[in-house]
Every structure is written in C-alpha cells, then in structure tokens.
Amino acid sequence: MCTGRLVVVVILLALAITGCVPSGLKSSSTPRELKGRVVAVADGDTITILDGLMQQHKIRLKGIDAPEKSQAFGQRAKQSLSDLVFGKNVTVTQTKKDRYGRVVGKVTIGTQDVCLEQIERGYAWYYRDYARDVNPTDRDLYQHAEEAAKKERRGLWADQHPVEPWLYRRNKRETAAMN
C-alpha cells in the first residue's frame, strides 16, 4: 500500500475511534441518542425538544402517523401527545432525518415508548410504509397495539371510517393541484 493511502486510512481510523468522523462519512443508519426537554408539540406525531446545549430539535416520531391537525381526531391526537410528553425529559433514538429536516426517531420517557403509547391510545396508525425503519420487535408491538385499539374502538377508531393521514394529505394535494 502506498504511503499516501496508508496515511488516509490511519487518519480515518483515528477519527472513527475518537468519534470525530466527518459527517459526510458517518453512516446514516447508525442510531444516535438525543436527550432533551419537550418544549412544543406540533401535532400527534411531531415534537420539539431543547437539548442540554439549548439547541432545539424538531422530532418526527418514528413508526407512527397521526391525524393531521385539520383532520378528524387531529386535535385529540395532539392533546394526547402533549399530555404524554410536554415539559418532560425524553430520549430520542435517531436513525435519520426526513425531507423536512426533522429528526426521525423513537421517543421514550424512561422505558415508556411514546410512539407505542400513541398507537395504544388510538391516536396514531402504525405507519407500515416505513416499517423497514422500525426494529422487528417494535413492528410487532405497534401492529398488535393498532389492532387492539381498533378492536376496542379507542381514539380515532371510534369513527366508523377513519381516514389514514397519508391518504388525507394526498387528497389535499390532489384537490389543491386541481384548483
């Protein structure tokens, strides 16, 4: 191996060991933990936390999709999430950012999975389109929680025909495009 390549390999190895890998070289699939206090709840699946360095991070709860604010049960979903997390310290296990720059992650308070709790309360769907982003154990938990909430008609499942948020958003886009 030539000396130039060896130097690059040694530098990259040293950076990796010290945790100082340039962001362009980090794997986006490596989980990262964020800790902070919830300072805002935008809707039933989006919060803002303030970390220890007083930086805000907008968080999209991973694996779930809650009704939009303007949709049936949207305000109740937001209130449910607010009751769960507002003003509390949470841990966010982040694996990526979405197209809006929000951190996508599993939110926990201690051992309580907030994403699962929203599904159990009947204020969010298990977002199967992004199932590959959720670990297999959580996939099963989320699926069973949704089935139980649906069977017991909790939250949005009290509605005879609840509209999935992804369909609601698509219909809004299509209507706007036609106007």
User: Which structural class matches the secondary elements?
Assistant: alpha+beta
Q: Could you state the oligomeric state of the chains shown? A: single chain
Distance between the termini: 63 Å
Report mean pLDDT, rounded to a whole number. Answer: 87
How much helical structure, as a percent, in the residues?
25-40%
Broad shape: globular
Q: What is the number of helical segments per DSSP (H or I, 4+ residues)?
A: 5
Number of separate strands: 8
In order across it, which strands form the biggest sheet?
A: 1-2-3-6-5
Q: What is the CATH T-level topology?
A: OB fold (Dihydrolipoamide Acetyltransferase, E2P)
Radius of gyration: 19 Å
| The CATH architecture | Beta Barrel
Strand residue content: 25-35%
Main sheet characteristics:
5 strands, mixed, barrel
Report the top-level CATH class.
Mainly Beta
Q: Please trace the helix and strand order, writing H or E for each element.
A: HEEEEHEEEHEHH
Low-confidence stretches are 12-28
- Tell me the number of structural domains: 1
Describe it.
This protein has 179 residues and is α+β, with helices and mostly antiparallel strands. It has one domain (38-169): Beta Barrel (OB fold (Dihydrolipoamide Acetyltransferase, E2P)), CATH 2.40.50. 37% of the residues lie in helices and 26% in strands. The protein contains 5 helices and 8 strands, in the order αββββαβββαβαα. It has helices at residues 3-18, 74-85, 114-121, 136-151, 165-178, and strands spanning 32-43, 46-51, 56-61, 64-65, 89-97, 103-109, 112-113, 125-126. The strands form 2 sheets. It has a 5-stranded mixed beta barrel with strand order 1-2-3-6-5. It has a two-stranded antiparallel ribbon with strand order 4-8. Helix 3 (114-121) runs parallel beside helix 4. The longest helix is centred in the first third of the chain and has 16 residues, at 3-18. The protein is globular and about 65 Å long. The N and C termini lie far apart (63 Å). 31% of the residues are buried. Residues 12-28 have low confidence and may be disordered.
